Amino acid sequence: MRTARVAHSAASLLGAMARELGSRVRWRQRGLDEVEALLSVLLAIVIAHAIGATNIGWAAFTGFMVMRTQLAETLSRGVLRMLGTAVGAAMGWALITREADTPVVVALALLFVGTVTLYAAITRRHSHAWLFTGLTFAMVALDSLKQPQMAVHAFALTRVLEVAAGTSAGILVNLASAWTVRPRIQGAQHLFADTVENAPPEWQKAAAAHALLAGGVLGVLPLLSPLLGASTLVQAAITIMAVMTVPLLSLDGEGNAVGTRIAHRFAGCALGALAAAGAIVVSHHHLPLAVALLCLGVWVGRHIENSGKSFAYIGTQFAVVLLVVVVPDDIHQIASAPGWARLSGIVLGIALLVPAREAAKWLGRRLSRRAVSDS
């Protein structure tokens, strides 16, 4: 019965997204943003290659995520990502230079840093900086288990270059659009509209438990390093952090808002992974076709993200996974192996996180029943 309900919900969700994709685009509200996001992605790829970055998909992902209508928001998202990336890379480098890059030590470090940064990303200001501090630290620390120190130093440096490429692309596209096309389509707008941030909340018990769960799952990854490659472990860490970053309000109350949010992120990852796998197979060693499929995927993801519907986050995750998996690191040689490695990491992250969440919910129910019986 439960399987039937899940299948029915999945079918309804897919139908709703299909109808959204078939809806008529309103250029004043959504179409221009989708074109800008696509241009930001393509420009980020070009800039990343020009400045010598290695993980081009990460630059493309940054270009997609930082691009917003207001220049102030684009700048804020980009600068915070760069700050978090730099701090996380420095922390990861400090860890391995102390010869502490053994699986157990890295596991404990990921448990602590992942928990703290995710909690801060959910509850504090400048959440992008906190999230990318944890993400980049995890990436550098996990890579250190497979690479010598000099290689890890290059890995940390290129993370900063990739975020800089994506941020620069978003700013350039935003400025070019604001000076040319956007005023004619959407009317005059302020480039630097005010952004309001709420004051940091007090201690949040639910957010702390949520972050600790994510940190615990992150801590499992280094222990798997003898069996898995660095790319798989890094992508699994990214998936775990991305899936578990949810709004603070969704953790309150007795509802299942966080479960729905995470389910939608899982759905986006799964759909993006399927689309990426298809794109890898279809466009193998064929650059123009790969670019065309990438553009189509970015538009699909952004269009769903801009829907304003409950499934908007599926579009974000769909596009992110597609970019990370499909965008080649070497423009002269499109290889499927890196894409499959990243895809396996996404699957690993989901496979570890789902049972961990179920176990945590079971333990919570058991403790609640025991507390009621004792009272």
List the helices and strands and how they pair.
Layout: H1 2-21, H2 27-50, H3 56-66, H4 71-97, H5 103-123, H6 127-144, H7 149-179, H8 182-186, H9 205-220, H10 230-244, H11 257-282, H12 287-305, H13 312-326, H14 337-374
Structure commentary:
The protein has 375 residues and is mainly alpha-helical. It has helices at residues 2-21, 27-50, 56-66, 71-97, 103-123, 127-144, 149-179, 182-186, 205-220, 230-244, 257-282, 287-305, 312-326, 337-374. The chain is globular. The model has no long low-confidence stretch (mean pLDDT 79).
Short descriptors:
globular, mainly alpha, 375 residues, single chain
- The amount of helix comes to over 70%
Radius of gyration: 21 Å
As a percent range, the share of strand residues is: under 5%
Biggest β-sheet description? none
N- and C-termini, Cα separation: 35 Å
Concise structural overview:
It is built from 14 helices and no strands. The protein is an all-alpha fold.
